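Researcher: Structure for this, please.
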Amino acid sequence: MTTKTGVANAGNLIMTGVLLMLLGDLLFALNDAMGKWLVASFAVGQVLVIRSVGAFIVLGPMILRQGPMALFRVEQKGLQIIRVFMATCDVALFYAAVAYLPLADVMTFYMAGPIYVAALSHFFLGEKIGWRRWLAVLIGFAGVVIALRPSTAMLSLPSLFGLAGSFAFALSLVMSRYLRSTSDTTLVTWQTIAALVTGIVLSIGHWQPAALFDWSGMLLLGVVASCAHLLITRSLKLAPASLLAPLQYTLLLWAIILGYLFFNDIPDTQIIVGAAIIVVAGLFIFHRKNLKETVPVEAVPPDGH
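Model: Predicted structure, token format:
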């Protein structure tokens, strides 16, 4: 009876983890749609500033519980700075890209993040990958090229923003894994502070007056992103990463749905084909990692937006 109870409890925890991951992904997609709506009317810097302030509504109690001085007791400060820089580039470039491109297009670039992580981890983390996963990485890159549209359009500035942002996102994940002994609160707090400072710099000369509704939307953006991060972090403590990792691709589905509902965007054939190739390649990489029992928790993007 005790064994059955233990199995049932474990099953309940895993199901809770799955539900939290799905809810977190939905909140991230909602965060991205809100960001696209806001940057259509306000400068990226201004949105970053108010979004960061909103994030501290959630982070504030966590910082107090951990102790403010713990923020300064971190390992390898040089790598911490690099991670914060990459995470800030990720957020800023995402909003810069989504201001001009459909939400599903930009999200397709970001869905390649785990594929980049697989390649980068081989060189920077010493995580050896076999020829099958290298082949999947190359196929995933091919999907990115297709989504970029192999023509002069692939060199458009917004597309390059999305591509560079997704690569910065992958680098921040690799750094997060390397610095995994640092608490989530510390990592996210410094990331948020950096986004705040960057937003202040970028908003110089571009600050615009806004209605109360718009200010509330920017604050809510930070709250939603922080809640999504916390939900996904908790889900990874309840269920195996190998089970949760593929669920991140629901972000692409939500991006298509929200893009259509709020912006009347319909993905074209190339985006759909490119996205499908990226998803299949990513799922194969996760499958091979699962077989090797080496799926890293950080293979699931906790955020960046």
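Researcher: Any notable elements?
Model: The longest helix spans residues 2-39. Residues 1-287 form one domain.
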